[in-house]
Amino acid sequence: QSENSDKSSAESDSETEVEQISVYHKLLATLKTSPESESESETEEEEDESDSEEAGASETEMDSDGSQETGEADGGEEDENDAPDQEEAGDAAEQTLGQKQTDGTDTACDPSHGAIEEFTDVKHESEFSLETNFMEEESGGCNADQRDSSSAPAVSEDPFKLHMDKELEEKEVEKISTLLKTSSQSKWPRLGQLTFSSTLEHKTLKADKEVDMKQLHLHKPLESTWPKVNKQFLSSMNKPSDASFTPLQRELFCIMSTYRDLFYPERNALTNGEEIRHAYCLHALNHVLKANAQVLSNNAKRRDQKPGAANDDYRDQGLTRPKVLMVVPFRESALRIVHIFISLLEVNDKKKIDVSNKKRFKGEFGFDPEERPPNLKRPEDYEAVFAGNIDDHFRIGVAILQKSMRLYAPFYSSDIIIASPLGLRTIIGAEGEKKRDFDFLSSIEILIIDQADIFLMQNWEHVLHLMKHINLLPLDSHGVDFSRVRMLNLNNWSKFYRQTLLFSALQDPQINSIFNKHCFNYVGQVAVRNVPLSGSISHVVVQLPHVFRRLEAENSTSVIDTRFQFFINQVLPEYRDAIMSHTLIFVPSYFDFVRLRNYFKKEDLNFTHICEYTKKGAVCRARHFFLKGEKQFLLFTERFHFYKRYTIKGIRNLIFYELPTYSHFYSEICNMMKATDNGVDATWTCTVLYSKYDAQKLSAVVGIDRTAQMLQSKKTVHLFVTGEN
């Protein structure tokens, strides 16, 4: 029977897609009729979810084709991640990688990836249902009514209420849609240079000198648990008035709690990554607890009201239940987030909260440290990024109700969804596919994208795909009670209320464009915009002349072809001579890599190549031939370096076809020259191609002052020399 229901709902899905407008009219029509009985909506929700989740098996297969179109099979990444660079151990992953390339199937279908039979927890549906539960009377102050009366002024100032209750007008919505913003600068003690921008009225924030926990409007139990959970980041230097936030957290939380969008491009896995994670988890959990408390309290009020009374005062929810979407790169990140949630909900050791499916979660998201080969030496930033379980295909729903938490909740019964871009991509699907679902993204109120720079190394297309499918009207009603849905959701205005928090290790045009083009928050945005004073070139220790060559391009799309022509006509001829052997060409983009590889083959040049999809044996051979000088050129991708961090020996000439995404890779690659034992060679060279569209990457390598000079100067060639003490 389930199969049939599965088919029919898949068919109805594809039908509804054609007539989206009618679904919306249906929603409006339903508003006039009475809401369905609660029990019905419950079963409907469950069926619906099992339908979307059963898609698990076929979805993954789809992805191999879907992602192939973008030209970068992200399956490759998965393999890279699964065997994080075991130089000595782990041919198995390279094996699957090889199969991946030949038959186009995605490793995600591999049962060991745990994606083939996706588990969802059906057992705890009624316990965690928002419709059928009420505010617990004895939960000491958690009762919203009591809170309303005891602290009336405080509740009206609660940023959550202020943000969600604001009623926008048509003309304001039109204005926001134009994305024409006014902006202003401000300097904060810890965050530095901030740009505030908004389309509506423009207010800048001042940094709070200190935080009063009472003023933060934290929902119980967070007020008492946060200081304990966050203690690990506080130094003895912290003033008691700081109410248990580090200076960085205090300023970030100050911005987050006003519901403005935030872009913070200085996240560092080694230094501040975890304190940032704690801060956004506190904000997300606070939001969910308040939203659910409001629903439960209104359930109780509705239960107690006289029959026939007006019902319009209880608009307290979206069209679907998920409110917070957290997009993170690896399972390890999801594991850490869930642990923070649990510790924030546990008031003390005696009051453990009930977490369903915890053991299963630990098994699927945890990591056995013995799996990692013991003798690998990698830079510490690598160790920090690739700690734990680094599988990048996952998604999990989390429901939170008062004192308990449900992991693996069906999406339509979840408050929070934690997922990787690939995990979302395989369920959102592509146009024309029968099995696809993105209704669960319709009412997301907080979107958190952490470690955005890693998504550039995985597959950025998936992030763009997600942004195109978030906050759309659902194609199906999913058993919602329309008398409880906020008008902002019925008007299809939820994207104007969504807060987006974006954390990255670097400034990048693609990440900026998400923030500038896909965020419509009516309260406005804050971006941290500090400029690098000295660049990573100052960390180059080898004696080396760096020749920076500027190429002129009409626009940002033509720069790709211009660069290629410039390289083959002006740069490559100088290196074709046999004396210029041992030349490594560093290529950030996989597309450029393929284009160069094809050109080198056609020209019959003596070269070898290594990219993120190269099998282990081929990598060893390429390194050997390059070191011995049997191959004159080595084409080398940034993503291979990101996932493996091998030292390449034998480099005498370096060409950066484009500046690296990660600026520290610049000095790292230059310093590889000293890995060969024949002492300093007077003939070492380094050539870098750049254009005016590389301003951000360039300033991260040479610093802001030199960048301005190099972009404005009449000269197109600039020389730096490093290593001359």
TrEMBL record:
<dbReference type="GO" id="GO:0032040">
    <property type="term" value="C:small-subunit processome"/>
</dbReference>
<keyword id="KW-0539">Nucleus</keyword>
<comment type="function">
    <text>Component of the ribosomal small subunit processome for the biogenesis of ribosomes, functions in pre-ribosomal RNA (pre-rRNA) processing. Essential for embryonic development in part through the regulation of p53 pathway. Controls the expansion growth of digestive organs and liver. Also involved in the sympathetic neuronal development. Mediates, with CAPN3, the proteasome-independent degradation of p53/TP53.</text>
</comment>
<dbReference type="InterPro" id="IPR053939">
    <property type="entry name" value="UTP25_C"/>
</dbReference>
<feature type="compositionally biased region" description="Acidic residues">
    <location>
        <begin position="37"/>
        <end position="91"/>
    </location>
</feature>
<protein>
    <recommendedName>
        <fullName>U3 small nucleolar RNA-associated protein 25 homolog</fullName>
    </recommendedName>
</protein>
<feature type="domain" description="UTP25 NTP hydrolase-like">
    <location>
        <begin position="259"/>
        <end position="526"/>
    </location>
</feature>
<dbReference type="GO" id="GO:0034511">
    <property type="term" value="F:U3 snoRNA binding"/>
</dbReference>
<dbReference type="Pfam" id="PF22916">
    <property type="entry name" value="UTP25_NTPase-like"/>
</dbReference>
<comment type="similarity">
    <text>Belongs to the UTP25 family.</text>
</comment>
<feature type="compositionally biased region" description="Basic and acidic residues">
    <location>
        <begin position="1"/>
        <end position="10"/>
    </location>
</feature>
<dbReference type="GO" id="GO:0000462">
    <property type="term" value="P:maturation of SSU-rRNA from tricistronic rRNA transcript (SSU-rRNA, 5.8S rRNA, LSU-rRNA)"/>
</dbReference>
<feature type="region of interest" description="Disordered">
    <location>
        <begin position="136"/>
        <end position="158"/>
    </location>
</feature>
<dbReference type="GO" id="GO:0019843">
    <property type="term" value="F:rRNA binding"/>
</dbReference>
<comment type="subunit">
    <text>Interacts with CAPN3; the interaction is required for CAPN3 translocation to the nucleolus.</text>
</comment>
<dbReference type="InterPro" id="IPR010678">
    <property type="entry name" value="UTP25"/>
</dbReference>
<dbReference type="InterPro" id="IPR027417">
    <property type="entry name" value="P-loop_NTPase"/>
</dbReference>
<dbReference type="InterPro" id="IPR053940">
    <property type="entry name" value="UTP25_NTPase-like"/>
</dbReference>
<feature type="compositionally biased region" description="Polar residues">
    <location>
        <begin position="96"/>
        <end position="105"/>
    </location>
</feature>
<feature type="region of interest" description="Disordered">
    <location>
        <begin position="1"/>
        <end position="113"/>
    </location>
</feature>
<feature type="domain" description="UTP25 C-terminal">
    <location>
        <begin position="536"/>
        <end position="720"/>
    </location>
</feature>
<dbReference type="Pfam" id="PF06862">
    <property type="entry name" value="Utp25_C"/>
</dbReference>
<keyword id="KW-0597">Phosphoprotein</keyword>
<keyword id="KW-0217">Developmental protein</keyword>
